[in-house]
# Entry
Amino acid sequence: MKYIKLVALLLLVGCSNPPNEFEQSVIDFADSHSNNSGVWSSGGTLHVASALTWQQASFQNKRATCSDFVNVLFSQQRLTFLSLEPHKIKTMSETLTVILNEKFAMSGTESQNKNRYKNKKVSIELAKIIKDIGWLLD
# Structure
């Protein structure tokens, strides 16, 4: 059953070029909170980005993007947490950023790196990580 739900989530954050429904929810969330400039959780732009784009982005952009995903999943009651304080969201976002940085670490020549990561999407990998570390409801 857990496997079926993970597959459904991954299909929801599928590989199409335009944002899918879940990615669009995250983008909409980010847009609605964009007036919070200067706040650590604002300015995320990697919601539908590839791993290659992630590799070149700033830590702030990565952390803010992860925060948007955490906030949307929490608002959809899909996380294992009953409540999330801002400091917990920040810690979770930083944890996700570090894990995804490791997962998308540059390797090999520029060409090898491009071939390895060109088809990897931030949204799909974040969904896998959130599931793997036990934050996603079954």
Remarks:
- The longest helix spans residues 86-103.
- The chain has one domain: 2-14+25-132.
- DSSP finds seven helices and no strands in the chain.
- The CA atoms of residues 13 and 124 lie 6 Å apart.
